[in-house]
Write a structure and sequence with these properties.
By secondary structure, this protein is mainly alpha-helical. It is built from 20 helices and no strands. It has two domains: 131 residues, Ankyrin repeat-containing domain (Serine Threonine Protein Phosphatase 5, Tetratricopeptide repeat), CATH 1.25.40; 179 residues, Alpha Horseshoe (Serine Threonine Protein Phosphatase 5, Tetratricopeptide repeat). The radius of gyration is 25 Å and the shape is elongated.
Length: 315
């Protein structure tokens, strides 16, 4: 096996690097278009006393007088005062603003609404208050994310439940083709995955790179989410844009639990991707004998005629 590994790697050349790169799962925040300093900027905003002071010192009788000011976006922080209330969880003050004319569906330059801010900062009561006052649950920000997707990303089960009860759009897609289910799976939020699967959701929805939730789940060390998806009839044989199935991906990620689960449920063992690579070939390309044994134990096999586009096989 050591000699084979050496010769196979040498023959594969640059393609071996491609295999190693594919082990790296795409970062979900990057896929959603969220910059690294996004949350840091929001923390700075929360630390500012300017907004709290103004809200706390303005009495109800004066709100109508200042409501046009309250509806303006603060130049330095890109938020309205209702959005600030949503972040801090100032339920009563937020309701006062709405009752006196604050725009519940106003968006900032990022397309974020007060409902999204309340979802991001886990203020359940504020979310309910906004929904009871005609907040639009279907609005999307510039990343095409709705409030449900933000709450899923944060792992806030209570808010996800509230939004689902109010018929949030579970099919909302980002430009990269991600839906809430993709996000919940990649973050490993089992309970939220269960909640989403209870809705009329496409369990095999593909992102722009052709990955289904099942493909993302088999990269996780815990196989519970993959089991949930399979029990909901997730398609084991869907392929990415380059022809890889969930089994290919579980092998590339060296996930023996995922491999065993897929094989037990009838995954095709000798399927080839766009480059003619079978799961067994991928297993042979990395120094992991357990991968080979797992595949072989389930009956994976290749003959001298089974070659990829580089005229190589796993024998």
């Amino acid at each position: 096996m050591d000699f084979f590994q050496q010769e196979f790697t040498k023959a594969m050349g640059s393609f071996q690097s491609q295999i190693q790169i594919q082990v790296q799962q795409p970062d979900i925040l990057q896929s959603l278009g969220i910059s690294k300093d996004c949350y840091e900027n929001l923390r700075k905003l929360l630390a500012s006393s300017k907004f709290k002071d103004k809200l706390e010192k303005t009495e109800t009788k004066d709100l109508k007088k200042y409501i046009s000011d309250f509806n303006k976006l603060e130049a330095n922080f890109n938020v309205t005062y209702l959005m600030i209330c949503a972040m801090f969880g100032y339920d009563e003050k937020g309701l006062e603003l709405i009752q006196n004319g604050a725009d519940v569906n106003q968006v900032n330059n990022e397309g974020l609404t007060a409902l999204m801010f309340a979802s991001i900062f886990q203020n359940d009561d504020f979310v309910l208050m906004l929904l009871e006052n005609k907040a639009d649950i279907y609005l999307k920000d510039r990343r095409h994310m709705n409030a449900l997707m933000w709450s899923v990303l944060q792992g806030y089960e209570d808010i996800v439940e509230i939004l689902l009860e109010h018929k949030a759009d579970v099919h909302c897609k980002t430009p990269n083709g991600l839906v809430a289910l993709h996000i919940a799976v990649e973050k490993g939020f089992t309970k939220i995955v269960e909640m989403l699967l209870e809705k009329n959701i496409c369990v095999s929805s593909k992102s722009l790179d052709g990955r289904t939730p099942l493909m993302r789940s088999v990269a996780l060390p815990d196989s519970n989410i993959a089991k949930l998806l399979i029990n909901k009839n997730a398609d084991l044989h869907e392929t990415t844009y380059d022809g890889k199935t969930a089994l290919h991906i579980s092998v590339i990620c060296q996930n023996c639990k995922g491999i065993s689960l897929l094989m037990k449920h009838g995954a095709k063992m000798n399927c080839k991707d766009a480059l003619g690579m079978t799961p067994l070939m991928f297993a042979a390309s990395v120094d992991n004998a357990q991968l080979m044994h797992t595949l072989l134990d389930f009956g994976a096999k290749e003959t001298i005629d089974d070659v990829n586009k580089f005229k190589q096989n796993a024998l």
